[in-house]
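Section 3.1: Structural characterization of target chains.
Under the original work plan, the team committed to producing a structural model for every single-chain target entering the pipeline before any wet-lab resources were allocated. The record below documents one such target. The sequence was received from the expression subgroup and is listed exactly as submitted; it comprises 595 residues.
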Amino acid sequence: MFRIKLTQPADRSRLRLWSPTAMTSAYKMVKDEGIPVYRAAKLNGVPLTTLRDRVDNRISIDCVKSGPCPVLSLDEEAKLCEHLKDLASVGYGYTRAEVVNLASDYAVSLGKRKDDQPFTLNWFYNFIKRWPELNVVRPSSLSEQRAKCASEESVTKYFNELERILRKYDLFDKPHLIYNIDEKGINTEYKPPSVVSGKDCKAQVIMSERGKTVTIIGAGNAAGMQIPPYFVFPGVRMLDGLLEGKSPGADGIMTPSGWSNSVVFKDYLQNHFMKFCQGRSDDTILILYDGHRSHISVDLVEWAKQQNIVLFVLPTHTSHILQPMDIGCFGPLQLKYAQECSKFARTHHRVVTRYDVCSLACKAYSFALSPLNLQASFNKAGIYPFKNSSSMVELLKSKIKPSELYIVDDEVTASGDHKKSETAENNFFDKKGGDVHIKIMKKKRKNINSIVGGKALEGETVEKMKKYIDESNSKISSNDPKKKKTKTPKNKKNSATSFNLQINDKQKPGPSKQNIELSEKSDLSDSENESEIPDEDKCCQCHQYYVDKHSHGAIEFTHWAQCDNATCSHWVHLKYCSPVHVVRKNTVFYCNCCL
């Protein structure tokens, strides 16, 4: 009888007791310095056979784990990795499933896999481990206008102009004179924060129905001082309860929509901002804000000039990377406001109403526009301490990358095609995703933001702005309103139904027939339309297209039918010019001419 010797299973923890760095070092010693394989393995503490397999090219030096080598080589995976990073940086990233499909197609094109042997998610997770520079993230949304306008050219021009203004008014070392003003919309409906709940229940938050937006106008300087909030409530009459619980200095106003406008913004600057801002002797104050139409007016520029204030408009659609309030203040304000609303609802056991918005928003405003946040926001925006254009372009390189997709049409070659490399047609990744790099934009339309965007409102810029406004006003006054043209309904020869109704513009309450206009003007318009209609499309009995309005009711639903006689094919008004009222499907109909 034979005895079977039971062996202990291999201890997986003892496999591959060498590091990839040691294996690479030993490989280089053999290849570059000519040291024997046995000696290099002993010096670096790697297995002899493992090193010999890599020296003899039986296994790639890039393989750092036990088992078979990856299907794609290091260079091939590097190209795939670069393609994934490139597409993600411009806003067209791949999902995990799409990466697996892309890699499968790539392996098939290289002849390393068959169509019926695609990669799986296990390959994807191993691929991510081999390339730690890749990561699965949830991308943030970016509007197309921001992707187009946040370009290297606009950032460079903006910082060159800002440097000129700071040098002209000697503001490089005066952060208390550099302000940023922006608006933020909040609502009684908020995004609730994460809460702790049981695993077997679905947590919910009770909140009020979505109401109208309340706008907060906020401001602060580079030294870290905030201007008290200014609220714009929706409505007509200001109620005392709306500002209950406000922070010291906070104020508000009413507009029908709850949004700011040119009148509100000017009132804010004159009566609220000037009350709390620093440096009101003979110093020049610099105010940076976005180019919303409510911020640009000739009256506002003239007032700012009298008050020794320089208004500086940010480039169009670049506030997400250049405006300090958007960079580091309004994000925390939104989060803090949601937390305060959640805490208020839990404490008072009721929903947040418009009378609670002011007190809750003031707490969030004081927290978000703290001195530390304001100073960090101005620093990150490159305003104070000032950073030149080349430094900011380098810092914002990843955020202005999507603008490289868009090419203005006057920069395209004469043939109308963007230049490509000679191997673009043969490149697998160019065929899969290369077309996103060719998006030709039309020439920029001339508007007020193209004149004032990224510039200080002074000198030649103000003159151009006044000229543009005057030209726009003259065009509006000279152009007559366009008259709407009504089209005559076309005859459809299936089972055509004609609806002919003319209603008086000044209708009065009453029966439907009372407001029907049967004037000579309508008859003339019908007669003019009748002359344009061919005879074969008219009724063969009354020789008209429209039924006589005076002999029948005020509203006619005129039904047509075509004679089934092949030699006739005339059209007839049912009910009015024929005893037949309805023609059903698969029934034969003959007009009076053929009966």
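The first strand starts at residue 178 and ends at 186.
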